[in-house]
Design a protein that fits this description.
Elements (H helix, E strand, L loop, with lengths): L1 H8 L10 H7 L8 E5 L6 E5 L6 H6 L3 H6 L2 H9 L1
Antiparallel strand pairs: 1-2
Length: 83
């Protein structure tokens, strides 16, 4: 729905959420547009990482949708593994 509104109005839509149901509803076609905010374990600084830049993402997505993975902490674990 948000994609359609943005296209109809010719604008970009920015959404922030912690809602796993919303992330699940976004579907896999939205993966290139999802950015994960997380804490760098070494520096303590906040970091933004494109979801598609996570090396383990294909394996993660094979086991469930983004919201479910996030709720289970699997995305955060994958990010920590890469640091």
């Amino acid at each position: 729905m948000l994609t359609k509104i943005g296209e109809a109005r010719g604008v970009d839509v920015l959404v922030t959420t912690h809602n796993p149901a919303f992330l699940d509803a976004a579907g896999p076609e939205m993966v290139p547009f999802i950015t994960v905010s997380h804490r760098d374990a070494r520096t303590g600084h906040s970091r933004l990482t494109l979801l598609e830049d996570i090396a383990q993402l294909p394996k993660l997505l094979a086991s469930g949708p983004v919201g479910t993975l996030s709720s289970a902490g699997r995305i955060e674990k994958a990010l920590a593994f890469e640091e």
